[in-house]
Design a protein that fits this description.
about 425 residues; mainly alpha; 2 domains; about 0% strand
């Protein structure tokens, strides 16, 4: 049996319009039980509006003249209604906005597949039911987060597409596009870890602080937790958190390697995977020894995504590529290993990205070895930080295990 497409589209429009009208009625009863006159129309009204949108679009679909005229008339009617409500000290344009969505069902059902009007229907229903959740979100969120989100869009969607994907910089075997892509990837991973820690786990227990802090800066996380250990004394939970931050560093570097050089990532999967498992296993043992975990870790609430930091990272990335190229050209594999160990006492991300993206004429196993040495050396730095900022009593346990992981990583690389 063949059903006319127009009948299907009209049915979709009527059903969705009627259901949204019912949802508006429920919304009014739940959130504004005493202000029923504040709302514009009933379920039948929204159904008729949907039908009108379909009919007047279908009559003249080329220039939409009739459709636009009816929309203007409905808008004028709502303006008169809204003006009266403003005089009474009450106002809300939500009914009008929902009416526009209902009025659009007709053209959507005609011009697009079923998923488009269905998606609009789901979004309207979701937003009407999410009022309390959105209110809590708006009251809890830091408004500066939107500025930071804008920075992320600027880095990825504005600057990145404008850069050429050809090797236009002298003495650098990489294009400006790939340089900035590295900045975007590292910034995205750091920003994602920060958001997960801040908004999905707001209680910030020590152990969660170590896990999620390690996704964007295991070094900073170690310093903050070590200072806390010095203030409260020896605490197995803080030791577990510091060790977990280092374990997450291995996982983070593995993800970065997979993005830029999958072949290197496959080689790193075994050593870094084992280091991650070993670190989390040791941290779990310390968690079993815990007496009481504090509810808040007093973690530094600082967003890692800053434009100045991003540009500095790009500059360091370029510098590391030049330095790595110079060392390999003059000192070979031995020089690369020495450089890897020295870089471990700084920020290792620019160096590791330079290894993953640059073409230096070295074998893949040399690149893998250099990355592992840098990661192990960075662990030695964090072990020193744990004792320096946490004191011998507060930081010796975590420092010992971080140092062991670092030595094992370097030994594996040299072997």
């Amino acid at each position: 049996m063949h059903v006319a497409p127009e009948l299907v589209h009209l049915t979709i429009t009527v059903v969705f319009s009627f259901l949204i009208g019912l949802e508006m009625k429920t919304y009014r009863q739940v959130y504004h039980p005493k202000d029923s006159n504040l709302f514009f129309g009933t379920a039948r009204t929204y159904t008729f509006i949907g039908i009108l949108g379909y009919i007047f679009y279908h009559i003249e679909p080329e220039y939409l003249s009739l459709y636009i005229v009816v929309l203007i008339l409905l808008s004028v009617l709502f303006i008169l209604f809204y003006r009266h409500k403003v005089e009474e000290g009450r106002s809300s344009i939500l009914p009008y906005v929902v009416m526009l969505a209902v009025y659009a069902f007709g053209p959507l059902s005609e011009r697009f597949a079923l998923w488009m009007p269905s998606l609009l229907f789901v979004l309207v229903i979701f937003l009407l039911n999410a009022k309390r959740s959105l209110q809590r979100f708006s009251s809890d969120i830091n408004m500066h987060e939107f500025e930071t989100l804008g920075k992320m869009v600027l880095l990825s969607a504005v600057i990145l597409p404008l850069l050429p994907d050809t090797n236009t910089i002298p003495y650098l075997p990489i294009s400006p596009f790939k340089i900035w892509l590295a900045v975007v990837v590292i910034s995205g991973i750091s920003y994602g870890g920060y958001l997960v820690q801040k908004y999905l786990f707001p209680s910030k227990g020590y152990f969660l602080t170590g896990i999620f802090g390690g996704t964007y800066s295991s070094t900073a996380t170690t310093v903050v937790l070590a200072r806390k250990a010095k203030a409260v004394g020896s605490n197995p939970v803080i030791d577990a958190a510091i060790i977990a931050a280092t374990a997450m560093m291995y996982l983070r570097l593995l993800v970065v390697a997979a993005v830029f050089n999958f072949s290197v990532a496959k080689t790193l999967l075994l050593p870094f995977g084992l280091m991650t498992v070993a670190g989390m296993g040791i941290a779990s043992v310390y968690m079993l020894w815990r007496k009481q975990d504090a509810k808040h870790a007093d973690f530094v609430d600082k967003n890692p995504l800053e434009l100045g930091t991003a540009f500095l990272f790009a500059a360091l990335f370029v510098l590391m590529m030049v330095l790595t190229h110079f060392v390999i050209s003059h000192y070979g594999e031995g020089g690369l290993r020495a450089l890897s160990f020295a870089v471990g006492f700084t920020d290792i991300d620019p160096f590791i990205l330079s290894l993953l993206t640059g073409k230096y004429g070295v074998m893949e196993h040399e690149v893998v070895s250099a990355i592992m040495i840098a990661a192990g050396s960075n662990n030695l730095l964090k072990a020193l930080y744990a004792v320096w900022f946490g004191g011998w009593k507060g930081g010796r346990h975590s420092a010992l295990w971080i140092a062991i992981l670092g030595v094992v990583t370097i030994g594996w690389a040299l072997y």
